[in-house]
Amino acid sequence: MMNWHFDNDRPIYTQIIESMKLFIVSGELKPGDKVPPVRELAAEAEVNPNTMQRALSDLERDGLLYTNRTSGRFVTENVDVIEAMKLEIARKSIAAFLTSMEKIGYSRAEIPQLLKNFKLGDEASE
């Protein structure tokens, strides 16, 4: 069972695609794994099956999924496609992080030292 978390300020369709990409690049869904049927995924994510179908079709178009007409959808076995997606996600995360750090006043030169000195558990408790 996959963990689905959606926020209300962005389209669910976009968030489904992002979640599926994360499931694939993180290895939660491995190359060659069979993807659950649309209705099952939609019920699990508590979304409309048409929305899930549209998202999965886009992932197919992007090469992350493929359909075997008689057996369903599967995660691509092309690890180069998965690694490229992983790198794309990482680059977007890094860009967002750098932009956020610059907004609070850190220069690009200061950020590496800040990261070097950071230890898990240092973050402020919420």
Spans of at least 5 consecutive residues whose pLDDT stays below 50 are none
Question: What fraction of residues sit in β-strands?
Answer: 5-15%
Tell me how many strands there are. 2
Alpha-carbon distance between the termini?
Answer: 28 Å
Give Rg in angstroms: 18 Å
Count of helices? 5
Strand order of the largest sheet: 1-2
What overall geometry do the principal axes of the alpha carbons give?
A: elongated
- Helix/strand order, N-terminal first: HHHEEHH
Overview of this protein structure:
The chain is mostly helical. The protein is built from five helices and two strands; from the N terminus they run H-H-H-E-E-H-H. A two-stranded antiparallel ribbon has the order 1-2. A hairpin with a 3-residue loop joins strand 1 and strand 2.
Nutshell version of this structure?
The protein is 53% helix and 6% strand. The chain has 126 residues and is mostly helical. The longest helix is centred in the last third of the chain and has 25 residues.
Topology, please?
Layout: H1 12-25, H2 38-45, H3 49-61, E1 65-68, E2 72-75, H4 79-103, H5 111-117
Antiparallel strand pairs: 1-2
Brief descriptors of the model:
single chain; 126 residues; mainly alpha; 5 helices; 2 strands
